[in-house]
Description:
It is built from two helices and four strands; from the N terminus they run E-H-E-E-H-E. By secondary structure, the protein is of the alpha+beta class. The protein has a four-stranded antiparallel sheet with strand order 2-3-1-4. The chain is globular.
Amino acid sequence: MICGILTNEQKEIVTNQMFNDKSYFNPVKDNFDNWVIFEQEMDCKYPEFAFVTTLPLIEFVPIPRPI
Length: 67
């Protein structure tokens, strides 16, 4: 899965905000301690969150779960 990397400040800006009429941003941490959002969240049409459309993209690597 491809995701966009957020800075800590950007993460705070989008948390608990809607990226469309029905869905909220859901920043998560990846295995490299980055805050990220997924591609569908980056397709945001609200001008106050336009910066998410140009975030650097990376392949998502989840945090391994303990066995």
